[in-house]
Specification:
2 strands; about 10% strand
Length: about 190
């Protein structure tokens, strides 16, 4: 038994630096996910552009019409903002509460919630990307016109928000992969 205990102590000492490196990597990835999703939510929630155009001329008097493009006009963009804001808040809470969540049950719960957040961000980004494609190219069969030629700044900011969200989703996916590997190694008792 002494050899087994000695061997287990050596294995746990070998695993200690690796587990600290993994923990630091997970914190860095969580911070990157927080920045990506918060940026996406912030940029899209402030996305608005107004244009005034002449729609007709009566005599010499132009008749002007003001058009506004807002993220609130598209339910997919609203879902996008809510999904990214939720993931940002979740990642912030996990970072703040992490010192108090040290049991395996907490690790498993955080992993499961990380998976939910990945799904939420990915579906929000996919829905917004579908609407962005429609805004850029329109749909000839449904006779929906593209709007990005008229609201270029709105579309540019939307594209930046989409990019930040997809980066956040990718980071969440990488974080989930590392977490499941770590949980598997801890469950099997292997270094």
């Amino acid at each position: 038994m002494a050899d087994e205990n000695g061997k287990q102590e050596v294995e746990s000492r070998v695993w200690q630096p690796k587990s600290k490196m993994v923990a630091q990597l997970l914190v860095s990835l969580r911070l990157a996910a927080l920045v990506g999703t918060a940026t996406a939510a912030g940029v899209m929630s402030l996305n608005k552009e107004t244009k005034t155009v002449t729609v007709a001329v009566v005599g010499t008097t132009p008749i002007l019409q003001t058009f506004t493009a807002k993220f609130q006009h598209t339910p997919a963009f609203v879902y996008f903002v809510i999904a990214n804001a939720t993931a940002s808040l979740y990642n912030l809470l996990v970072m703040l509460l992490r010192p108090h969540l040290k049991t395996k049950a907490h690790d498993t719960l955080v992993y499961l919630l990380d998976t939910v957040m990945f799904a939420l961000v990915a579906t929000g980004a996919a829905a917004a990307a579908a609407m962005a494609e429609l805004g850029k190219n329109g749909n000839e069969h449904a006779r929906w016109n593209a709007i990005c030629d008229k609201f270029g700044s709105f579309c540019l900011r939307g594209g930046l928000a989409l990019t930040a969200s997809f980066v956040g989703a990718l980071v969440l996916m990488i974080m989930n992969a590392i977490s499941v590997i770590t949980l598997n190694k801890n469950a099997c008792g292997k270094p």
